[in-house]
Amino acid sequence: MPGNSPARDGTHPRDRSRARAWALHVLYLWESAGGGETITQALSRVLQSRHVAPRRLAYIELLLDTLQDNLPEVDRVLQSALDNWRIDRLSVMDRSILRLAVTELLFLDEIPPKVSIQEGIHLAEAYGGKDSPRFVNGVLDALYKRSELRG
User: Fold this and answer.
1) pLDDT-based confidence at residue 11 (cuts at 50, 70, 90)
2) Which domain does 68 fall in, by range?
């Protein structure tokens, strides 16, 4: 039955999870290179050397383009939730994970906020330091509790 097979257009939750991991990879490379290129240019560089499933590419592009277009607002909202921390003092990995999740929370209404938070925690578990999951959870939970993110 068609309803039982996973979508092949990037809307399946597994595809979005993997797309987020690719987006994190791109952001990490972008920041590690000193930010001398745009996020879109960093994505192009990654796509020249790595194979990304086409069904995931649309969500990767949507997420990274939205972040690039709204980076000052994403960072402003993120900074407001960092008690006694500056965004530039975060590890590149934690900052990148938080930027992706905040982008979803603020601008991608089709993604439920709790999904964005959980996916951020999963990325922190997979790619962050030992304290990253708890830290990411705390920051995203604090942001979620604000009325501007709950709609």
Assistant:
1) low
2) 2-150
